[in-house]
Amino acid sequence: MPTTTVSSLLDTIDDVGRDPARGGYSRGVHTPAEATLREWFQAEAGRRGLAVETDRNGILWAWWDATGTREGALVTGSHLDSVPGGGAFDGPLGVASALVALDLLRERGVQPRRCLAVAVFPEEEGSRFGVSCLGSRLLTGTLDADHARSLKDADGTTFAEASRAAGIDPAHLGRDEEAIGRIGDFVELHVEQGRGLIDLDSAVAIGSTMLGHGRWRLSITGQGNHAGTTLMSDRADPMIAAAQVVLAARKIAAEQDGARATVGRLQPVPGGTNVIASRVDLWLDIRHEDDAVTATLIERIHGQAQKICAFEGCRATLTEESHSGTVHFDGALQRTLGNALARSFPGAPTLPTGAGHDAGILGSVAPTAMLFVRNPTGISHSPEEFVERDDADAGALALADVLEDLL
Ligand code: GLV
Ligand code: MN
Ligand code: MN
Ligand code: MN
């Protein structure tokens, strides 16, 4: 089939999951938008003569069956789900680039010594069910299947129910030895999510490390009451406590070199303008390269939250939703990437990432590596995330060079 460009491939899904209210895209896992993208991927893989299968955890695999066995295959790919109001590239760039890289390998007449698969991982963002990299965590067994089945979205739908509705039997979720055995090496291409490549004036980079991060839900309970009849001195308002916790998290993180703490989601219950909330749930995203520091940060924020709540007549309960330690991508694979990139991108830099990726989770079962493609806005998890067409093609070329050397 004729070679297409990454951008023209992405143009074909440009209207899927647009979110006019937030801007950008909302493509939560197993929503109609994400289902459309999964169908798109299957059609694109089918057009290339790849054998597509969905595994027990809902991960899509498109196989170039170059040899007799899929054991120890070379795997590339990314995710198609997005954060609410996200950009067009976080996830889909890696999937589209993988398909285009495969086209390039065939155009070059590369004779693979092992099978190649393009994989699509569900719920990488954890935007719907709270746990990031849910598909790769299930595959590797780093997330308990019972726990995954019971996770609920904002409407109370469980992951088990959503999986069943998407045609995935929830009874079979969990560690998948067969899939693990098939991943010989995993390389994920991803839009860069900060300013690293702008500052280095390069279209592509090799990933070095992935920042450890965790997510916690803090539920603050107080006394729900009437906004008009309750004197200011008579309140146990969890929103007042939550506001102070947000500020405390910022202060505690700002005092620690390299730390990041974010409250990007906050939910008052029941959520009425003239109602003092009875409960406020807020979610903390905390990251640091030293996992022990991350643990200390959440401890300190929790301690501060308890003090604040005691003062405000409220109670705070902390629940960990997910956690991943800092990952150093495989050294030998990084060197292979460096040698491959030296052909078309001499001097390509090596960059750490503050974002989470399936490549980090899969690092527990196979050598993994990442390629980053320049984002000229330096902004991500926002509609302003962007990749120039030339840079997208440069990324696919870099990925093809890497895959050629690894095949
Ligand atoms: C996912 O992209 C994350 O870094 O949270
Ligand atoms: Mn991503
Ligand atoms: Mn993301
Ligand atoms: Mn991510």
TrEMBL record:
Protein name per its UniProtKB record: Allantoate amidohydrolase
Keyword vocabulary terms for this entry: Hydrolase, Metal-binding, Zinc
InterPro entries named in the record: Amidase_Cbmase, Bact_exopeptidase_dim_dom, Peptidase_M20
The organism's taxonomic lineage, starting at the top: Bacteria, Bacillati, Actinomycetota, Actinomycetes, Micrococcales
Keyword Metal-binding: yes
Annotated binding of allantoate, by residue: 215, 274, 287
Family the UniProt entry places it in: Belongs to the peptidase M20 family.
rRNA processing as UniProt keyword: no
GO molecular function, one term: metal ion binding
Superkingdom in the source lineage: Bacteria
Signal sequence bounds: none
